[in-house]
Amino acid sequence: MEYMRVFLVGGIICVIGQLLMDGTKLTPSHILVIFVTSGVILGGIGIYEPLADFGGAGATVPLPGFGYALAKGAIKATSEKGILGAFTGGVQATAGGVAAAIVFGYLMAVIFTPKAKK
Protein backbone atom coordinates (compact mmCIF):
# COMPACT_ATOMS: atom_id res chain seq x y z
CA MET A 1 0.00 0.00 0.00
CA GLU A 2 2.93 2.33 0.65
CA TYR A 3 4.01 2.02 -2.99
CA MET A 4 0.55 3.08 -4.10
CA ARG A 5 0.67 6.21 -1.92
CA VAL A 6 4.15 7.11 -3.21
CA PHE A 7 3.06 6.55 -6.81
CA LEU A 8 -0.15 8.53 -6.33
CA VAL A 9 1.49 11.59 -4.75
CA GLY A 10 4.49 11.62 -7.10
CA GLY A 11 2.21 11.07 -10.08
CA ILE A 12 -0.05 13.95 -9.12
CA ILE A 13 2.96 16.27 -8.82
CA CYS A 14 4.16 15.16 -12.26
CA VAL A 15 0.67 15.60 -13.76
CA ILE A 16 0.58 19.16 -12.42
CA GLY A 17 3.94 19.84 -14.05
CA GLN A 18 2.80 18.32 -17.35
CA LEU A 19 -0.43 20.34 -17.31
CA LEU A 20 1.58 23.50 -16.69
CA MET A 21 3.86 22.71 -19.64
CA ASP A 22 0.99 21.80 -21.98
CA GLY A 23 -1.57 24.40 -20.95
CA THR A 24 0.58 27.49 -20.42
CA LYS A 25 3.49 29.23 -22.07
CA LEU A 26 5.69 28.60 -19.04
CA THR A 27 9.12 27.17 -19.77
CA PRO A 28 10.50 24.21 -17.83
CA SER A 29 12.72 26.65 -15.94
CA HIS A 30 9.70 28.64 -14.81
CA ILE A 31 7.97 25.46 -13.68
CA LEU A 32 11.08 24.39 -11.76
CA VAL A 33 11.07 27.68 -9.87
CA ILE A 34 7.32 27.45 -9.23
CA PHE A 35 7.66 23.91 -7.84
CA VAL A 36 10.61 24.69 -5.56
CA THR A 37 9.01 27.92 -4.34
CA SER A 38 5.69 26.20 -3.71
CA GLY A 39 7.52 23.53 -1.70
CA VAL A 40 9.15 26.24 0.42
CA ILE A 41 5.88 28.07 0.99
CA LEU A 42 3.84 24.94 1.72
CA GLY A 43 6.61 23.63 3.98
CA GLY A 44 6.87 26.95 5.80
CA ILE A 45 3.17 27.10 6.61
CA GLY A 46 3.01 23.42 7.57
CA ILE A 47 0.93 22.03 4.71
CA TYR A 48 3.66 19.98 3.02
CA GLU A 49 4.57 17.98 6.16
CA PRO A 50 1.39 15.85 6.12
CA LEU A 51 1.78 15.34 2.37
CA ALA A 52 5.38 14.17 2.87
CA ASP A 53 4.28 11.86 5.69
CA PHE A 54 1.53 10.38 3.52
CA GLY A 55 3.37 10.23 0.18
CA GLY A 56 6.91 9.48 1.35
CA ALA A 57 9.39 9.60 -1.51
CA GLY A 58 6.59 10.56 -3.89
CA ALA A 59 6.48 13.92 -2.12
CA THR A 60 10.09 14.38 -1.01
CA VAL A 61 11.98 13.41 -4.17
CA PRO A 62 10.33 15.75 -6.74
CA LEU A 63 11.15 19.46 -6.86
CA PRO A 64 8.58 20.62 -4.29
CA GLY A 65 10.28 18.20 -1.87
CA PHE A 66 13.55 20.10 -2.34
CA GLY A 67 11.78 23.33 -1.43
CA TYR A 68 10.21 21.60 1.55
CA ALA A 69 13.65 20.44 2.72
CA LEU A 70 14.97 24.01 2.40
CA ALA A 71 12.10 25.38 4.50
CA LYS A 72 12.32 22.61 7.08
CA GLY A 73 16.08 23.14 7.48
CA ALA A 74 15.69 26.90 7.79
CA ILE A 75 12.93 26.58 10.39
CA LYS A 76 14.91 24.09 12.46
CA ALA A 77 18.12 26.13 12.33
CA THR A 78 16.25 29.34 13.18
CA SER A 79 14.89 27.77 16.34
CA GLU A 80 18.40 26.64 17.32
CA LYS A 81 20.60 29.54 16.15
CA GLY A 82 18.28 32.50 15.80
CA ILE A 83 18.02 34.65 12.69
CA LEU A 84 21.35 33.40 11.29
CA GLY A 85 19.81 29.94 11.06
CA ALA A 86 17.30 31.25 8.51
CA PHE A 87 20.19 31.76 6.10
CA THR A 88 22.25 28.65 6.89
CA GLY A 89 19.65 26.02 7.75
CA GLY A 90 18.30 25.40 4.26
CA VAL A 91 21.78 25.05 2.81
CA GLN A 92 22.83 22.60 5.51
CA ALA A 93 19.64 20.55 5.14
CA THR A 94 20.08 20.09 1.39
CA ALA A 95 23.88 19.98 1.12
CA GLY A 96 24.05 16.18 0.89
CA GLY A 97 21.58 15.97 -1.99
CA VAL A 98 23.21 18.80 -3.91
CA ALA A 99 26.67 17.32 -3.44
CA ALA A 100 25.45 13.89 -4.59
CA ALA A 101 23.86 15.41 -7.70
CA ILE A 102 27.12 17.17 -8.59
CA VAL A 103 29.29 14.09 -8.00
CA PHE A 104 27.01 11.67 -9.87
CA GLY A 105 26.47 14.14 -12.70
CA TYR A 106 30.23 14.51 -13.09
CA LEU A 107 30.75 10.74 -13.02
CA MET A 108 28.10 10.18 -15.69
CA ALA A 109 29.68 12.87 -17.86
CA VAL A 110 33.07 11.17 -17.56
CA ILE A 111 31.74 7.66 -18.17
CA PHE A 112 29.36 8.36 -21.06
CA THR A 113 31.09 11.27 -22.88
CA PRO A 114 28.17 13.65 -23.48
CA LYS A 115 27.79 15.30 -26.86
CA ALA A 116 26.36 18.73 -27.65
CA LYS A 117 22.96 18.88 -29.37
CA LYS A 118 23.02 19.92 -32.98
Description:
With 118 residues, the protein is an all-alpha fold. The chain has one domain (2-112). It is 85% helix and 0% strand. It has 6 helices and no strands. It has helices spanning 2-23, 28-44, 48-55, 57-60, 63-81, 83-112. The protein starts with a helix and ends in a 6-residue tail after the last helix. The chain crosses the membrane at residues 6-24, 31-48, 83-112. Keywords: Membrane, Transmembrane, Transmembrane helix. This is Stage V sporulation protein AE. Pfam families: SpoVAC_SpoVAEB (PF03862). It comes from Anaeromicrobium sediminis.
Pick out its properties.
118 residues, mainly alpha, 0% strand, globular, Stage V sporulation protein AE, membrane, Spore_V_AE, SpoVA, transmembrane
Output the number of helix runs: 6
Query: What is the radius of gyration?
Result: 16 Å
Structural class: mainly alpha
What gross morphology would you assign?
A: globular
> How many strands, which pairing sense, and closed or not: the largest β-sheet?
none
Strand content: under 5%
